[in-house]
Fold each of these.
Amino acid sequence: MVLMDLSMPEVDGIAATKQIAAEMPSVKVVILTASESDTTLFEAVKAGAQGYLVKNLEADDFFALLDRAANGEPAFTPALARRLLVEFSKPAQKPAAPEADALTDREREVLELMVEGVVSNRKLAKRLDLSENTVKFHVRNILDKLRLHNRAEAVGYALRKKFEA
C-alpha cells in the first residue's frame, strides 16, 4: 500500500497514482491530503486510488479506513463517498474534442519526436535524456489526454492537426 500526497516535486500525486495503477495494479494507493476539493477527489478515483483520506481525520477512523483499503475495500469517509456517488451518478455528457493544448511541454516534445519517426521507448528516452519508464508514462498521458489508443493514432492526430511546438 502507498500513502500518496498530491503535491510532490517531480510528479504530482494524481499522475503518480495513475502510473502505479498501470504498472503495479496489485499495489493499493490511498491519497492522504489536506485538500477536500471535489476535482482532486474525482481525479484521484479516476487515476486508480483505492481511497482518499483527509489529514484531519481522527486516528481511529484513519487506521480503520487504511485497514479497509488493505482488504481491497474503498477507503472514503461517508461524506466523501456521498460526493463520489453524486458525481458519478450524473448522466454522462458528450466529451469535448481532444485538444493538443492539454499536453504538457514534455508531452508535446515526446509527440514531436514520434512525428519525426522516433517511436521506440529506448530511442525516445535517449533523445530526451529520460528513463524508459518516464517515456512510457508520458506516452500513456498523451494517449489518455487525446483519447487515442496507440502511438500510430497519436502521430496521425499530430499530423492532421499540423502539430508544432
Note: Residues 132-146 form the longest helix (15 residues).
Amino acid sequence: MSRFALPAAILAGLLASTVGLTAQRAPVTPQTGLSPDILALACAPTGAHAQPASSLRVTGGQDAFTRRNYGPGDLVTINAGTSNGIRVGQEFFVRRTQTDRDYEISGVVPMIVHTAGWVRVWAVEDDMSLVTVTHACDAIEVGDYLDPFALPDAVVPNPNKPKAERDNYARVMAGVDLRSTFGRGDFFTINRGTQDGITPGAQFVVYRDKKEAKNFLFELGEAVAVKVGDGVSTLQVTLSRDAFREGDYVAARK
C-alpha cells in the first residue's frame, strides 16, 4: 500500500459520504456536558520560554485543493501513526506558538502558546494518521503541533482576599494572538509561576502607573490565576474598571 493512500474500506466510506463536496469530512463527536467556562479555560493561552518538544504536527488535509486552515468535522493528516504509538480514538490538543517579532524569547519575554482546538484520531497507518477536528477554539493550521489531551478542572477562586502584596509586582503580558488589552472575562499572561508561589485560584489586583509624581498606582481591577506554569501564569479578568494593558502591574493577594 502506498504511504499516501488510505485503506480501501476507509477511502470508499469517505467518498460515499462526501459526494458533491470538495473536502472529505468525518462525523463530529460533540463534547457533551462541557460548560462554557471549561471550554473557555481549555482554549485559554499559556506562556512558554522554549519551543515545544512535541514532534507531532498537522501536515495537511483530505481535500481536492491545498488548504492551510481547518475547522470542526474536517479530516486532517498528522505525521505519526502506529509506529509512533498512535491509535484510533486518541485525542490531542492542537497548539501553536506566537511571538512578537520585535522580541527574542527569553526568561523575561516568553512566547504565547495558543490552543487552536482538539482532534480525535480517526484512521491510522504506519507513519501517518487521519484525525478529525472535534472542537475549534480558532482555525487549526498546517504546522500546528499536538499535545496530550486532558480537559482542565474548573478553577475555584480563593475566597480570601488579603491585601495585595506591594513592591513585588508582576507585569501584564500578552494574551491569545498577542492581544495587549483585556476586559472582564479575558485571559492574559503574567511573568510569575509556581517558582514564585503562584497556584490556581490565587487572587490578584491589577494596577497602572500613570507616571504622576507623588501619586498612588491606580487600581484597575482584579484577576484570578487559572493556569500556572514554572515562570508564566494565565490569569482571567474578574473585575475591570478600565481595560488592562500589557505592562500594567499585577500584585498577588497574600
Note: The chain has two domains: 8-148, 170-252.
Amino acid sequence: MEERKLTLLMDFYELTMAQGYFNDNKHEQIAVFDMFFRSIPDNGGYAIYAGLESVINYIESLKFSDSDIEFLKSKNIFNDKFLKYLKNFKFTSDVYSFKEGVPIFPNEPILVVKGPLIECQLVETMILLSINHQSLIATKTSRIVREAKGRAVLEFGARRAHSYDASLLGARSAYIAGALGTSNTLADKLYGIPALGTMAHSYVQSFDSEYEAFKSYALNYPKDTLLLVDTYDTLNSGIPNAIKVHNEILKPMGEELKGIRIDSGDLAYLSNEARILLDNAGLVNTKITVSNALDEYLIRDLITHQNAKIDSFGVGERLITARSEAVFGGVFKLTALEENKKIVPKIKISDNVVKTTIPGFKQVYRFYDEDNKAIADVVTLFDEVIDESKPYLLFDPENPWKEKLVENFKTEQMLLPIYINGKLVYELPSLKEIKQTKEKYFNTLWDEVKRLKYPHKYYVDLSKPLWDLKQELIFKHKK
C-alpha cells in the first residue's frame, strides 16, 4: 500500500489557533492535554483501548511538505513567518499512554501530551480520530466475543465498513479484542490477521446445480471445504448436497467436509437441524458457521436461550460500524500550562458536572487485590507515589462520602512514556502481543463489570490531593 501523507489530516481550527499562538509568542509555552472519554458505548461496563500505534505512526511522519505549505499559503490566511515555522516543524513533546488492549474507563486520562502548546494543538485531531474509532470497534468486538462463550468470532465487515481505512483498522481492532480472523485480505498482508472465507451465493448460482457448485469447490479445496448451504433450501437441498459431496468427492480422497455456513433464516432452528443431519451422516466433526446481521445480543440469545448448535460466527456490519452506538466520544482537553517554569493546573467548569475537567498533569494507578482482580483506578497528580504497604482510602469523587479502605493491594501505573522530548521511547509490541495484553488485563476484571446489561460500575477515583486541587479551582472560578 502506498504511503499517504496525512500531516494535514487535522481540523482547520488547529491551524488557525496555532498561528494565533505563534503570533502571540505563546507557541512554545508548555501545556498538558488529556485525552479521555465520558461514557462507555452501549451502556457497557468497560471499553478497550486501541489506536495508539496509529498515533505513533502519525507523529513519526509529522512533517509539512512543500505542497502542504503551498496549499496553506493559498488559503490567504497564514503569514510567511508561521508557514516557515511549519516548514521546519519538529515534534518535541512528551506523550504518555495506556497500552493498547487494556480496558479503560470514563473520565481517566488514557493519553497525555505534554509539550509546546502549538504541538499539542496540531496533533489533537489525529489522536482523537485514531483512538475514538479503534477503541469503539475493539470495545464492540470484545462484547461480541464474550457472548460467543469460546466459539470463534470472525470479522466479516469489509464491504460494510465506512471506508477502506475503517475496514483495515477495524479489522486490526477486532483482532486485538478477540476476533480470530477477518474477511479482509489486505488486513492479513499488513497486520498478519488470518484472512478467511470460502464462497458467496453467486458461486453457487453460477453453476447448473448446487451439487455441481459444491463439487467444484471440494475439488479445488479438498482440505478446506466449507460450503454455503442456504442459497436455495438449507435443509432440503443445501445440507443434503453438502453431505453428498462429502461422500462422493471428499471421502474417497481421504478428506472430510470441514464445515457449512448458514447466512439466512432462523439460525437457531437451522443450525440445530443441520447438526442432526450432519451427525446422522457421520459428519460429527463438520463445523457450523453462521452469519447475517449478528451482534452480541443475537449471539447471546442463540447460545444461551435457544441452545443453537453453532461453532463459529461471522460478524459483519454490526461489528465493523459498531452500529448500536457509532460514536466513542473521546475528547482532548487542556489541563495545565507552564507559567514561570512551573506547571499550573487549569480547569474547564460546566453546569453539566461530567463536563468539568480534572486539572493538572496526572498519572493513573490501577489497584489490584490479592487475587489480581482490578479494584478501581485512581487518578493522581503525576508525581504522587502510592505506598502499597499502607492502607489506602478510595472514595467516589462525585459522592466523596462513599469510601472504601483497601489493604493488601498492589498498584500499576497505567500511563507509560511513549515519547520523551519528541523521541519515541516505547517499543511497539506486535499485534499478537497486543491481543495477549487485552486478554491479560481483561481477565483482571470482575465478571460483573463485563456483564452485557446493567454491569457493575468500575470506579475511577481521584487521589485526595487531586480532589482537593479540583475543588480549590472550582471554588476559585465560581467566586
Note: The longest strand covers residues 330-339.
